[in-house]
Amino acid sequence: MNSRFLLRKKHSLFPLPSSQYLHATTATILNTMASQSYAFFHPPKCSAAREDGPRNNNPNKGSSIKINGTSAAIAANIACPAFPSPASVTKSIPIKENRQNIPTEKQTVDAFRQGLIIEGGVRYRQTLVIRSYEVGPDKTATLEAILNLLQETALNHVWMSGLLGDGFGATHGMIRNNLIWVVTRMHVQVDEYPIWGEVVEIDTWVGRSGKNGMRRDWLIQNRLTGQTFARATSTWVMMNQQTRRLSKMPEEVRDEISPWFIERCAIKEEVPEKIIKLDDSAKYVDSNLKPKRSDLDMNHHVNNVKYVRWMLETIPDIFLENHELSSIILEYRRECGSSDVVQSVCEPDEDSIPRDDNINILTGYSLASEILDDCGLAGTFDKWPTRYTHLLQIEGKQRNEEIVRGRTTWRKKLSNTLT
């Protein structure tokens, strides 16, 4: 049996935090309660009787109903606390702020998200469980699920920094300058996909990228063993929300985020790989793709994860059944709106076809192609390229406009590898 399954039987799926974590969590909760001048919950009724009339005809007999561990009979004798009504609360506090409860100061512990600020108070770590709707038919996390987790932990990192405004990860200084973040490049490497129910830790941190950019990295590991599942790096720049043009980083924004920079890279890229541009003559073409409303993010353009889905759908299903993605590089050119019509093109790299893909099941030795043909086995050991180049573009009357270029690398699934 897989040792990763055995570990989950031996250890609790939700391991208790250390005493230090508990003390920090308790202190955070108490400080939050003490700092609020209003209640976040509805006050309990001061009577055990039902609103439509008493259920117990004997007024001297106490009710067996429990309220927070105290009998209703005892609770009825306690004076009702002077909680403000929900209406009085919402009059003075904006509904969105009341529901999101975005911190205005740096937090070190987030008990609800199981998040921590570590490494000198600048690196973020979140513990989570791979859920059933995040896995595919083989019970391993999908690439889309991993990309969504990267995006979520990045936003939670900004949330805990105390810099988050009302934008999609934008700081207070960015909001004052009408700026938003846009990703220009992302590189994800997957060593192994986590399985359903596995407890993982995701670390994320930021660093400098040139004069006006920011780099964000991630590391996904098994919480119990420390095994690395995936690592990722990305480059971000700022765009004016109204003009949709790239912008220089204002000094007030630089002052906000630079104290969080770490000079560490999850993936070392001395010379980033350049991706060639494809055209309509590519081997695989999928046209007339239209974004749905559910594909849009909070900035009102198509979410980055949707781009990856469109890219991978051009690859033949027979290849996807026996292979899994090990690396993806994305170069973003422009955003895609709800009214755009998209075309996805894909070209396999013929030079990436494995040379020794034809293996004798019994001996393990390579079989000559002519022997396979004579035995009628040609086609049984299909050779597939392991690298593909991708392009998403907006279909236009005059010319097509690039959305994102991609490069994917694949490997055979372990369960389907001939040994």
From TrEMBL:
Entry keyword set: Chloroplast, Fatty acid biosynthesis, Fatty acid metabolism, Hydrolase, Lipid biosynthesis, Lipid metabolism, Plastid, Transit peptide
InterPro entries per record: Acyl-ACP_TE_C, Acyl-ACP_thioesterase_NHD, FATA/B, HotDog_dom_sf
Record GO terms (molecular function): acyl carrier activity; fatty acyl-[ACP] hydrolase activity
Documented EC number(s): 3.1.2.-
Main location: plastid
Residue span(s) of domain Acyl-ACP thioesterase-like C-terminal: 282-360
Compartmental location: Plastid, Chloroplast
Transmembrane segment boundaries: none
Region (Disordered): 45-65
Biased composition (Polar residues): 55-65
Highest taxon above the source species: Eukaryota
Ranges for domain Acyl-ACP thioesterase N-terminal hotdog: 122-257
An annotated GO cellular component: chloroplast
Record's keyword annotation contains Amino-acid biosynthesis: no
Membrane keyword on record: no
Cited Pfam families: Acyl-ACP_TE, Acyl-ACP_TE_C
Similarity remark: Belongs to the acyl-ACP thioesterase family.
Function: Plays an essential role in chain termination during de novo fatty acid synthesis.
Name of this chain's protein: Acyl-[acyl-carrier-protein] hydrolase
Classification of source organism: Eukaryota, Viridiplantae, Streptophyta, Embryophyta, Tracheophyta
Gene field: LOC103705673
